[in-house]
Amino acid sequence: MNQSSRIAFLASPALEAQRALAELQREHGAHAPEQADILCPLGGDGFMLQTLHRYGGLGKPVFGMKLGTVGFLMNHHRSEDLLARIAAAEPAKLRPLEMRVTSRSGAVEQSLAYNEVSLLRQTHQAAHIRIDLNGQTRLDELVCDGVMVATPAGSTAYNYSAHGPILPLGSHTIALTPLAPFRPRRWRGAILKADTEVRFQVLDQDKRPVSVTADSHEVRDVLEVTIRESSERMVTLLFDPEHNLEERILSEQFVA
């Protein structure tokens, strides 16, 4: 990072974010993400995820600033000394999950998830789901509201609300967490190696339909979902040293 580095500022539609966008572009210039050295999304975690999905393939480091409701993946918004902050920032490297889903229509869709992939029942009927790990059946039938696989970065979000474990950044693990499990009633989920292939097969699809969501991409009436950590895609998030992502994840484990 130097004084000539080009920053692509991207903003959510929120008025505060749009005002910050105009101010930062006046000071540092306006650059397209494809021509920039660094991406700087302005908004909340939802907008950060949108940015990663849209531009993660460019391989540019990302320094987000919070101008939204939730900002776990963002730095504090402060326009002064931005270049110095970025130069001193600490990197956090994240690999998303790759989801491949087959629906009842026979369509096959693929998507990435930087936080989690979650299966949810579509009706009042509980979902019945078989779970395979690396081709071996580990749970013949999970009766539940749903089940999810979360990354370390996503483990403090929906996964934690469902009583799943918080995973340290760089632990090379993923969390497999049930949502309101009815049978086996005492099953709390599992912590898996990041390279584990997780396969969910929806049982009794006609009576008990299930949808799946990878971050914000939803597919309904699914038959089978396969999830694995991406071996090709990786993004680098930049954080102020005093509040880096590793420290935030650790701190979450000591919140009463």
Overview of this protein structure:
It is built from five helices and 17 strands. The strands form four sheets. The protein has a six-stranded antiparallel β-sheet, with no helix packed on it. Strands 12-11-10-7-14-15 form a six-stranded antiparallel β-sheet, with no helix packed on it. It has a three-stranded parallel β-sheet with strand order 1-2-3, with helices on both faces. The chain folds into two domains: 7-94 and 234-252, Probable inorganic polyphosphate/atp-NAD kinase, domain 1 (Rossmann fold, 3-Layer(aba) Sandwich), CATH 3.40.50; 97-229, Probable inorganic polyphosphate/atp-NAD kinase, domain 2 (Tumour Suppressor Smad4, Sandwich), CATH 2.60.200.30. It has 256 residues and is α+β, with helices and mostly antiparallel strands. The protein is 17% helix and 38% strand. The mean pLDDT is 94. It has helices at residues 15-28, 45-55, 82-88, 158-161, 245-252; strands at 7-11, 38-43, 65-66, 90-94, 97-103, 108-113, 116-121, 127-133, 136-144, 146-150, 173-179, 190-193, 198-203, 210-214, 217-219, 222-229, 235-239.
List keywords for this structure.
256 residues, alpha+beta, Rossmann fold, Tumour Suppressor Smad4, 2 domains, six-stranded antiparallel beta sheet, 5 helices, elongated
Low-confidence segments, given as residue ranges, are none
Distance between the termini: 39 Å
Shape call = elongated
Secondary structure category? alpha+beta
**Reading side by side through the largest sheet, how are the strands ordered?**
6-5-16-13-8-9
Gyration radius from CA atoms, angstroms: 20 Å
Task: Tell me the helix content.
Answer: 10-25%
Number of domains: 2
